[in-house]
Structure prediction request, 191 residues.
Amino acid sequence: MVLCSGSIGLIDGIVPPAVVFRSAGGPVALGSDQAAGNNCNNIFNEMKLTALFNKIKYRDPTVMPAWEALRMATIEGAQALGMADEIGSLRPGKKADLILVDLNALNLTPVLTEPIRNIVPNLVYAASGREVDLVMVDGRILVRNGRVLGVDEEAVREEAQLRAQEVAEAVERDPVHLDMALLQAMEEGKL
Prediction:
């Protein structure tokens, strides 16, 4: 199962059945869906929402611990793609896909290793993604010092804004979308 808790929670107001699926023995992977669905494409956000939504749904703080959400974003994501032999964990023979996170970022401190460890909970509940310092895919560094290499970020941002406006205008003209509950709620000032 691949789920996007942020998008499903926002659009449908439900919690995907991750706990039920996991208890039946199935792997659950996290996705970030579409920016229009949950206003962001952020796997840190998905980890946090998945863990919190399930704790709230089941009224049990032990349901969906941080390590499970992290696992769903990494190795179980690779399993869902059929690529667990290549990616999803750091092992000899696998592609060098990894991120380095600045654990000194204020929202991730303090870092405790004894008598308790809080690194994984900090990543799941406190990280936003802005703490990512380096991204490596198949051994190639794509982000260093938090900046995307080889890409004019401002130009990409401007292009994305232009295209998003075009899509929004097309949706406004499309009669199929006029019946969408979210659009109606926006027009009524409920969102």
In short: The chain has a mean pLDDT of 91. The chain is about 45% helix and 10% strand. Strands lie at 2-3, 29-30, 98-101, 132-137, 140-144, 147-148.
